[in-house]
Design brief:
heterodimer, A: alpha/beta, 13-stranded parallel sheet, B: 205 residues, mainly alpha, elongated, disordered C terminus
Chain lengths: 536, 205
């Protein structure tokens, strides 16, 4: 007699055979003890599986027994919204405003960041350049299709976040010079009398701009000389830059040596080893310089802000001068109309003939290397910062409990988190630097990029704090209340650590990297696991 | 299947209560949603606990599933049992989770030639089952490849039918039986019974 195979027997037990086959098997088992035994064995196996799977062998975690976030939202929201405004106030007052003031003092007048973003960002510039209606239609269509596709694939919230970040990117990123002329050669020369009617992008070993560029000049190369006329900005990355011609806009350079002898309509910003403003130079705006040596023989019509090791000033500066560095010497031909502040360990040297509006203010080397609670105001501010951090934690815990838990778990895997965080922050710094140099809209846009970074770094402490608190309290509390306690304790310790001389700063850098890394990994995880085809 | 803790209450009255809660939850009643949550969360947590590797993953998955369910509550077809729908969503979620983590080591699609056509020795299978307790079975289950484990959990914990399993695992319906049988074989192997239920005895039909 032919026995039925195991597959058929299983399907029979599960009621998956068609009627005819089922009858066959029923008839067969009536006579065949072996097949009957197999059916029984399989049935027993089913029972074993079923009871093993459904047995309540472990308790349900307490935090799963009550619906998450159900009761906490109202009061948490009320408190957090109130305190969140305090927190943004704190971030603004301690983080952004001083920066902005300094920049505006240096000739970068800070208007409202948002309006600047809208009207000078990629979108604005893009529209004016986009004369072609077809292009606009194509763009709208493309956007619509992309949104549709994304919406179907991703969850709504994810999509919104994605679209918002893309929009933000659009605002923040430079409009890729719409109709630029791109030159990529060993050596490039724009001869005298020649005119480029758009932006000019040059990537070559040496570049000589003797003609006229009616737009921006962006150049990468080892030696770049501008002796012609550029109506827009000059942005250069390379070894040497020499500008003897006329630039109506800004000059921004990341070069080893920058020499400027011409007429610059707006500001000069350099990150360079040696920066020289020769006597024929006229800078309509201000100068911001970072590097090793700076010689200023020319005329700067507004402020000078610099972090340069050695500075020599022989020329004229109409605005304020704020310097930080090792040495400052002011020559006899110098004419400084504004106040001069010098932050250094060393006394500045001032030649006899130098004309100074007021004596130089010497500030001790960067006043405090570490934080101290010197006054009631400091204590209040620190408490405010601490409170803000707790509130941010509370908001995260309430609004994004899933994210909070995943990020917290990633914080526990500190090696990976710190690594990823370090990488991310480093990339951020590089991007900021490149942004500084490249962005047409300039400083304010970079500042707004900063606005994206600050929350990230600010959130970082929340997770490190919560983790630390959890480690100290040694109980794996899952309820939000207990979590909040851990968070409060952890953050308190972190904020106290801030005041350890010297090490405090390093610890906080580590915290920023650590938490940021954990959040990025968590974000990655959640974005990877969330989009799901719901066939329900 | 005696001894199984069925999450879905059997009586019509209880069904009516659930239906009423769902209707209220759909209308935005947070209390009704809370009741639904408390009623079904334990079963879903156990489901996830069996389906995904770690307890933490199971906890997270449970929370995420309920967030999803709450969002999708309007799509639930009241003609079907709520728990069946819940398990379907959970199964998709867990499978997706594992797939995205690339935990799935076993083959995406089995070949029809792989259909095991043996007739194992019922006595040996019986012996194996006799000797093993629930705990041992659970430990063996944890060692199975994701798809095999998922198939067994879907079928013998959540009572999902073959269509639902096929859809959740992304296999053809005709393969569900094969997947289940292969999973049982792997489980027997994992239970340390190599050879017991294998090709030892019996002839092919």
């Amino acid at each position: 007699m032919n026995h039925f195979d195991e597959m058929t027997c299983l399907l029979y037990l599960e009621g998956q055979l068609d009627a005819a086959r089922e009858e066959d098997l029923t008839a067969h088992t009536a006579q065949c003890g072996d097949c009957r035994a197999l059916l029984q064995a399989l049935q027993r196996e089913t029972h074993l599986l079923s009871s093993a799977l459904t047995e309540e062998n472990e308790p349900i975690p307490a935090h799963l027994l009550s619906e998450p976030g159900q009761n906490q939202i109202p009061w948490a929201w009320i408190i957090s919204l109130g305190l969140a405004s305090l927190c943004s106030y704190a971030v603004w007052t301690f983080g952004i405003e001083p920066w902005q003031e300094e920049l505006s003092a240096a000739g970068f007048n800070a208007q409202h960041i948002l309006s600047l973003l809208v009207f000078t960002g990629a979108f604005w510039k893009g529209w004016s350049g986009m004369i072609n209606t077809i292009q606009i239609i194509a763009l709208i269509l493309f956007g619509g299709v992309a949104f549709g596709v994304l919406r179907r694939r991703l969850r709504q919230r994810t999509t919104v976040a994605l679209v918002l970040s893309i929009l933000t990117l659009g605002f923040v990123l430079v409009q890729p010079a719409g109709a630029a002329e791109v030159q990529h050669k060993e050596s490039y020369t724009l001869t005298k009398g020649e005119v480029v009617h758009t932006d000019l992008i040059v990537a070559s070993g040496t570049a000589q701009i003797n003609g006229t560029v009616e737009g921006d000049l962006i150049a990468f190369g080892s030696a770049i000389t501008v002796s012609g006329h550029v109506t827009g900005d000059v942005i250069v990355f390379g070894n040497q830059l020499r500008v003897d011609g006329t630039v109506d806009g800004n000059v921004r350079a990341g070069c080893n040596t920058v020499v400027i002898g011409g007429n610059i309509g707006k500001n000069v910003m350099t990150f360079s080893n040696i920066f020289e403003l020769v006597s024929s130079a006229q800078v309509g705006g201000g100068v911001i310089s970072m590097g090793n040596q700076m010689t200023m023989d020319g005329h700067v019509h507004r402020d000078v802000l610099s972090m340069v090791s050695q500075t020599v000033i022989d020329g004229a500066v109409d605005g304020r001068i704020m310097l930080r560095g090792d040495d400052l010497s002011i020559g006899s031909t110098a004419e400084l109309a504004g106040p001069v502040t010098f932050q250094s360990r060393n006394q500045p040297r001032v030649a006899d003939g130098a004309k100074l509006a007021s004596p130089i203010t010497l500030e001790a080397e960067p006043a405090r290397r570490y934080r101290r609670l010197n006054s009631v105001r400091d204590v209040v501010h620190e408490l405010l910062r601490y409170g803000a951090a707790v509130v941010i934690g509370l908001i995260l815990l309430t609004v994004l409990p899933g994210f909070f838990r995943v990020a917290l778990r990633e914080t526990g895997r500190y090696g990976v988190s710190i690594g990823i965080g370090a990488l991310a922050l480093m990339t951020g710094v590089v991007l900021l630097f490149v942004g500084f140099m490249l962005l047409f809209v300039g400083v304010r846009t970079v500042l707004s990029t900063f606005l994206v970074y600050i929350p990230l770094v600010y959130f970082a402490q929340v997770f490190v704090g919560a983790w630390l608190g959890g480690q100290l309290l040694r109980k794996n509390a899952q309820a939000s209340g207990a979590m909040l306690g851990q968070l409060a304790l952890g953050l308190l310790i972190l904020h106290a650590l801030r005041y350890i001389p010297y090490a405090g700063g390093i610890i906080w850098l580590l915290i920023a990297m650590w938490g940021t890394g954990a959040m990025l990994i968590a974000l990655h995880r959640m974005l990877r696991t969330e989009p799901i085809a719901m066939a329900a | 299947m005696e001894g199984k803790q069925k999450p879905e209450p059997a009586t019509a009255a209880e069904q009516a209560v659930i239906r009423e809660r769902i209707a209220r939850a759909r209308a935005g009643d947070a209390d009704a949603w809370g009741e639904l949550y408390r009623q079904f969360a334990p079963a879903i947590f156990r489901f996830c606990r069996r389906a995904v590797p770690t307890r933490e993953d199971a906890e997270d998955a449970t929370m995420e599933i309920f967030i999803k369910v709450r969002e999708k509550l309007s799509q639930y077809d009241a003609a079907r049992p709520f728990s069946a729908w819940l398990y379907k969503v959970s199964a998709n979620h867990c499978w997706d989770l594992l797939r995205r983590r690339k935990v799935r080591q076993d083959l995406e699609t089995g070949e029809i030639e792989d259909l095991p056509l043996e007739h194992p020795n019922p006595g040996q299978l019986d012996q194996l089952i006799e000797k093993r307790n629930n705990e041992q079975v659970r430990r063996a289950l944890d060692k199975l490849p994701a798809r095999a484990r998922m198939a067994l959990v879907f079928r013998y914990y959540a009572d999902m039918n073959y269509d639902e399993i096929a859809e959740s695992l992304g296999v053809r319906r005709a393969f569900v039986g094969v997947v289940l049988l292969r999973a049982r074989h792997l489980l027997r192997d994992a239970l340390g019974a190599r050879g017991a239920a294998e090709r030892a005895a019996g002839g092919a039909s």
